[in-house]
UniProtKB/TrEMBL annotation:
This is Dienelactone hydrolase family protein. It comes from the Bacteria. Pfam families: Peptidase_S15. The lineage of its organism: Bacteria, Pseudomonadati, Pseudomonadota, Gammaproteobacteria, Oceanospirillales. One of its GO terms (molecular function) is hydrolase activity. It comes from Marinomonas ostreistagni.
Amino acid sequence: MKIHRTISTACRYLTLLLFAQLASAVELNNAVGIQHQTIFNDSYRPLDITIWYPTSAEKEATLTADNAAFQGTLAAKNAPLKVGNYPLILLSHGYRGHWRNLNWLADLLVKKGYLIAAVDHPGTSTFNHDADIAAQWWERPKDISRTLDWLQHSVWSSYINSEQVSAIGHSLGGWTVMLLAGASVDAHAMRTFYNKHPNPRIESVANEMKLDNPEPMLAGLEDSRINKIVSLDLGLAHSFSVASLKQILPSVMVLGAGIDIGDLPVDIESGFIARSLELPTNRYKIYPKATHFSFMQLCKANAYELLEAEEQGDGIVCLDGEGVTREQLHDEIFQDISHFLTSEE
């Protein structure tokens, strides 16, 4: 009996060791690398970009995009890229946002086998806010196209599946990726709508970007290399001409927040886009318990109080609907996006 117990204990030990090794292998295979760099340094508009990618290197991962208020994710900085040919996703942040806002989504997508690149848009980012630069609104979609140009002519090019390029944007980033899809700005239509349906928050952004007095470049910002678009609770939807929305060719998924924070009613903004699109491959979904900020990174336990102490009203970015956690919302959002990106329609 004693020998039997010894053998049984040894078997259990070996089984646990095997499971540990398998878990380690899975973790290694799903490891995420990250790089930050500035491209087009010598141009009129240098761009700070962040790239997430699969890596199999045994390099220690550290928390990235983590601070006192927001949870980060694990990534190995400057780890070598795992050999492969990956679908590419380009990310666009919201008004006064930055690459960290969709860090959670980038992390999950890399673990599914994607290569992700995000740009901090000059003039409308957290750390580079300038009204004169923001007024050059057409540069936002061009930032994404220029990032794609650079990737396709760099060491990354051989790892990118150029037949599978998508763009995802949140808030003003959602507006930006719609321009990449082929939407064009119609200043008269925008003014007519918001005169009848005033929205001070959206109009203040429109005024800063000078959408009432746009440059002659009202069209031609689409990028035919991008074949799928995901818009996350966008604003300024009525700055687009309906005619241009009806002619969009890439497949589009429009996701909206069901809880209005006071300036982005989903039916008026995301719903307008969804109703205007004509392709049968388009998708539209509302998350009833999500707010506009539910699409951003996870908040830590004391984040609301911390942000309110710094600036009253800022804590709203950590509020979601009752009876649901942001992590649960992220899981549903990710599953919907993943299904859309992999569908062959």
